[in-house]
Specification:
- By secondary structure, this protein is α/β, with parallel strands linked by helices.
- About 45% of the residues lie in helices and about 15% in strands.
- The protein contains ten helices and ten strands.
- The structure holds zinc ion.
- The site of zinc ion (ZN) has 6 residues, from loops.
Length: about 290
């Protein structure tokens, strides 16, 4: 049904987009914004609404975001339930702007929540380079549907970007190969690296109580320490500031170190401000800390 809705929307859209003007793309993912820029080239103007280095889980569209969306040619979403505000975007545009839920066309992994509760899709699909390659094709087709006359240009651009992703994947696999399989253990404060783990053969141990915003109970801290000791983990990774008290206990009792900052919720800052830079930073940080 959803696919049918897309088709109808895309079928109707070209008449609403004026020829000659760049397509206005509103991306609610910094990764998708990069893909749109690379595939769309001079045919698009891309607004990245969720800034690199910010938390997309807590993001709420501002009035200025809604105004931009209302005038957009295309909205790009990570999907897999990451953007709980999709209804607001549709309302802002009066349902006239096509919303492409890119992640909905990619395979899902599932969050480990309450086993009795409903299954929840893990939204962090961009930690698989293979998924980003597929997402590039989804965006390419979305742009081509809006501007059929530029289909070949979008194909050429998508191929060039895809070749860079293939090179990035080769690099990442070679880098991970430096790490013996029994050392591929990720202890993180935020269960965001399942797609990464699946792609490169890691096991993930998400733990509570590691971040500064949490006040872990002594039972939670004991569980963290038990996991680290049992798994002989050499390093833990946290995405934001680490709880100094917990970190002190970890380093004193297990010898594990803080492995450095990872960018897990979209593009990062500095060298991690591009997709390739983010992957190289994360893979390099993980492999170097666990080696
Ligand atoms: Zn996340």
């Amino acid at each position: 049904m959803r696919t049918l809705a897309y088709c109808l929307v895309f079928f109707l859209m070209p008449c609403l987009v004026r020829a000659g003007e760049p397509l206005r793309v509103s991306a609610f993912s910094s990764v998708l914004a990069e893909i749109a820029v690379r595939v769309g080239g001079a045919e698009v103007v891309v607004k990245s609404h969720v800034p690199a280095g910010s938390d997309p889980h807590d993001y709420e569209p501002k009035p200025s975001d809604l105004k931009t969306v209302a005038q957009a040619s295309l909205v790009l979403l990570s999907a897999k339930h990451l953007e709980g505000y999709v209804g607001k975007l549709q309302e802002a545009s009066g349902g006239k702007v096509p919303v492409l839920e890119v992640g909905a066309q990619l395979p899902s992994l599932w969050m480990r929540e309450d086993p009795k509760g409903p299954r929840i899709e893990d939204p962090h699909w961009w930690h698989s380079v293979e998924n980003v390659r597929k997402a590039t094709k989804v965006v390419r087709d979305g742009l081509a549907a809006l501007r059929p006359g530029k289909k070949e240009l979008f194909e050429t651009n998508a191929e060039a970007y895809g070749a860079e992703l293939a090179e990035l994947q080769r690099w990442a696999k070679n880098k991970v190969a430096e790490l013996p399989r029994d050392k591929r253990k990720l202890v993180t404060s935020h269960d965001a690296l399942q797609y990464f783990a699946k792609e490169y053969g890691f096991k993930v141990y998400p733990v509570a109580g590691l971040t500064a915003s949490e006040q872990p109970s002594s039972r939670q801290v004991a569980e963290v320490l038990k996991t680290l000791k049992e798994q002989r983990v050499k390093a833990v990774f946290a995405e934001d500031t680490v709880n100094p008290k917990v970190l002190q206990q970890i380093t004193a009792e297990t010898g594990a170190i803080l492995g450095g900052q990872l960018w897990v919720d979209g593009l990062g800052l500095g060298v991690a401000g591009t997709y390739a830079g983010m992957v190289r930073h994360n893979v390099g940080t993980i492999v170097d800390a666990l080696r």
